């Protein structure tokens, strides 16, 4: 992986296309499509406070959550951009009840890829001007090319991902992604609309001093998770840790990858499988974490090994610095 700083995302994709095992150029076109959609959504997110985009779209998505207007806009932009590029045969989204079949208008386009997206994660933060993000996950289809995509193409274990990434719309807008050969971060120069390689070869520190969890749910957590949170707070070697949780997975994950830390969304007596969705939140973030020498677990097994059973299924999620994830797994397994 060539990682000289300051090259553009476009140059980076072309230079590293050969290192991707299926380098047919389609994946590059796919990443480029995501790049374009990211710029469009970034433009809307950045002006959200200025035009009537704030507030809800009046609908409720399959998750039972109020759809924010920007959720709907981001969802539409990513789906339209991916459809227009004649690259994918199917799309699944947090904002769509079922997956979308994309039948090629041109029989020459034997589209091989399916994309799963959380178009605007953390959207409850939109109205209060806190960072939000887009998460994407890419697989090769497993059913015969040229036939309509099926649910089987989406219910693949995270280990099958060919690429995954996120865009964080923060103090600066960054696109961070992996194709299985390390993790690289690109920062958008909004003046010229170009992403530049700003964070080559991103790696989770092996351990850290930040833990991210919604402690408002503490009384509902399992004893093992409670014990780990108390461990983070006790005086001890390098402890107490610092609690940092902003209610936006992409932002908490991104900060923890740079500084070292763990993000947790455990199951609880209120949410028996936790809150985060396996296919378009946990799997892509887990692929990035593992590629950055971090770790991602449901508390007892690697996220990437879970065999999905439903499009919108939820799993408990512990992700970040390897030694911190291993520690919370130890606490959980002691109290199983
Ligand atoms: P809670 C946003 O809805 C999200 O999926 C993640 O981005 C975030 O970390 C989490 O949910 C926040 O959930 O229940 O703590 O408000």
Please describe the topology of this protein:
Blueprint: H1 9-16, H2 26-46, E1 56-60, E2 66-68, H3 69-84, E3 88-93, E4 100-101, E5 113-121, E6 132-140, E7 163-169, E8 173-178, E9 183-189, E10 194-199, E11 210-212, H4 223-233, E12 242-243, H5 249-259, E13 262-265, H6 278-291, E14 295-297, E15 317-320, H7 322-334
Parallel strand pairs: 3-5, 11-12, 11-13
Antiparallel strand pairs: 1-2, 3-4, 5-6, 6-7, 7-8, 8-9, 9-10, 13-15, 14-15
Helix pairs in contact: 2-3, 4-7
Bound molecules: 6-O-phosphono-alpha-D-fructofuranose.
6-O-phosphono-alpha-D-fructofuranose is lined by residues 121-122, 124, 214, 247-249, 275-276.
What does this 3D model show about the protein?
- With 336 residues, this protein is an alpha+beta fold.
- The protein has helices at residues 9-16, 26-46, 69-84, 223-233, 249-259, 278-291, 322-334; strands at residues 56-60, 66-68, 88-93, 100-101, 113-121, 132-140, 163-169, 173-178, 183-189, 194-199, 210-212, 242-243, 262-265, 295-297, 317-320.
- It folds into 2 domains: 9-199, Fructose-1,6-Bisphosphatase, Chain A, domain 1 (2-Layer Sandwich), CATH 3.30.540; 210-334, D-Maltodextrin-Binding Protein, domain 2, CATH 3.40.190.80.
- The strands form 3 sheets. An 8-stranded mixed sheet has the order 4-3-5-6-7-8-9-10, with helices on both faces. The chain has a 5-stranded mixed sheet with strand order 12-11-13-15-14, with helices on both faces.
- The radius of gyration is 19 Å and the shape is globular.
- The N and C termini lie far apart (42 Å).
- The model has no long low-confidence stretch (mean pLDDT 91).
- It binds 6-O-phosphono-alpha-D-fructofuranose.
